[in-house]
């Protein structure tokens, strides 16, 4: 029998915030019935862009249900920026601990939250995935890398406990080991070896990223953005529509547009707004 | 709150009569049965009696019984003995749904150069006799098939399989840990060469088992040591437990009828009651050919560990073939071998009864389970009311 904390048992037997929000601002799903656990998380923001309500539905074991319940409680009253900072370890701490074999439940909560926030921001699913490493449980290299980094994992067994990857046929063990080795030898440094972009490549990627990842979510709020010029690593943009008159547009440009472009194109980019 | 124990395939309570005969061997009757003095010798006599009691339950003779520490040891001793006895033969035949005691052992031997054939089962957990027949070759050292499956209770036609093995000159072992005491077994009329049984599955204590080895079968000692068990298993006898196992076997023979009447009726009541009261539920395994005490029921769209922990709140003890209960990540190999769909496999619960269960306990479980499933389905993203309407209509 698992050693579950009283708090975990309480959240399992009396789960908080069960259900789905009909007009949710963000919805994220993680896991599948084949994997043995799945979570659907939805949240609603208030007028100050803080999470007013978070709800969940879970198929899974006691710890899967309890971590989802705990996560919805933790999310309440948080801004999305604060919510994004919640790690799977925070969820574990909130419950007073999880058996090692059950750590993947907390990671599932963290991933569903990622997806719900991406869904709110209008980032298509494909953009946050990666290459499937574990075919049995559909775990990507990105998910494994994130779990290894955030929890300092050093063995395949630990990766399995946190992400389920490698828990089925075992064919991906070598690939998991490679990821561990790569992250351990490189420490926290960004994956090197990315070829330097030519200016034309850079501009094309910036344009694509704006079109695919950034414009859709700005347009949802009645705003838009246009690329004016690229000078070295300076990306000059002009705001349009609601963004042009919005006093928070500077923040949007720094916290959303710039972050996205750094992630998708190259980390050196700086985004600046030009007033025409 | 009273405990309702429906996990008798995991382990059973020690029968009060068994405990009673054991107690003196923890106190005044502490002699070593190998000693020359009569103080030890009297213990030797009760061990001989226990050996006869065990033999009698399965239609064997006393000298065909070797006491071991557990079912796992019996299985290891049987298979390794066969491989030693026929060092030129490098092939083992077994099934896909064996207990880990066999499964892990043959997989280990597979890594040491033995060829292993695992005979599949169909979606009702039934043994594929045709595949089995053609799997036996002159290179086959031993066949090991379980008599009754621990998860579903489904029986294998081991008598017929043993006949076939015998006709091809292959040794046949059966892991009968779940079957002994629940269904009639008569080795006099059988071609089975070796049979494993375990005390704690039939109301004897944990830590005692036995291996039946047919007279004339080549046997190579697994635990090498003193002359105990005629040199076939060294180590000072676990006297109290051996005496207890003897008594438990005597009781099992007396209660066999009860297993197939009272226990079976209670199991059927529980099973039919749950199928009727919980939509989208089904039985795993062949209902027409299985142990009288076992039912494996799957509740779709919910997960087994969660069910067990909610039942635990009512002090109802059962077990699950779900992934999460075992710490592994996939549902049990038995349910996977049967091709049980994932939606069902994760929500499987095994209830296994004993002669000590009472009807009011079954009523209590029938009262509590539907609410637990409903509560968990209320949390499940895969469950919606429309499906329930479909299932009901």
Account of the protein in words:
The complex is a heterodimer of chains A (276) and B (393). With 276 residues, chain A is α+β, with helices and mostly antiparallel strands. Chain A has 3 domains: 6-126, Sufe protein. Chain: A; 129-186, Arc Repressor Mutant, subunit A (Orthogonal Bundle), CATH 1.10.10; 199-273, Fe-S cluster assembly (FSCA) (GMP Synthetase, Chain A, domain 3), CATH 3.30.300.130. Chain A contains 11 helices and 8 strands. In chain A, helix 1 crosses helix 2 (62-75). Chain A is globular. Chain B is of the alpha/beta class and 393 residues long. Chain B has helices at residues 16-22, 38-57, 71-85, 100-111, 129-135, 158-167, 239-277, 304-313, 323-326, 333-337, 342-345, 359-379, 385-392; strands at residues 4-5, 65-68, 91-95, 115-119, 140-146, 171-175, 194-198, 209-213, 281-283, 294-299, 316-317, 319-320, 348-352. The longest helix of chain B is centred in the middle third of the chain and has 39 residues, at 239-277. Chain B is globular and about 70 Å long. The interface between A and B is medium-sized, with 31 and 26 residues.
Q: What labels would you give this structure?
A:
heterodimer, A: 276 residues, alpha+beta, Sufe protein. Chain: A, Arc Repressor Mutant, subunit A, GMP Synthetase, Chain A, domain 3, three-stranded antiparallel sheet, three-stranded mixed sheet, B: 393 residues, alpha/beta, Aspartate Aminotransferase, domain 1, Aspartate Aminotransferase, domain 2, 2 domains, seven-stranded mixed sheet, four-stranded antiparallel sheet, globular, disordered C terminus
